[in-house]
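Checklist before submission:
- one chain only
- standard amino acids only
- sequence pasted in full

Submission:
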Amino acid sequence: MGKDLKGKELGTGLRQKSNGVYSARYVDRFGNRKEIYDRNLINLKRKLNTALYDDANGNSVEDNSITLSQWFKSWIEVHKYKVIRNNTKMYYTQLFTKHIEPSLGRKKLKDVTQLNIRASVLRVHFTIICL
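Returned file contents:
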């Protein structure tokens, strides 16, 4: 439990430095330790809650420049290396290349939203129905 300069308890991960600035520490879902600063304790708690919410819901991305196509290639080669069979890898890659990559492949991973995904899925279903 951190304390402010007057000795008052601030809560877990919160503290006040000698210059009067408050700081909050947390560990994100990637295992990286993060620290947030603010001169106002209420604003700091808001920033901390927003950061924790974004982290819990997957809104934070470790690398802001990675595209969806790059992430998919990394996911299939690194994270699914010995978890799924080769036929499943080929099937996933075919589905991604045919249906997802044309509409969302060039988008940065941080910019892909649920609305983009739903629009892409609707386009695929509409194309199948029209055939």
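Reviewer check: The radius of gyration is 21 Å.
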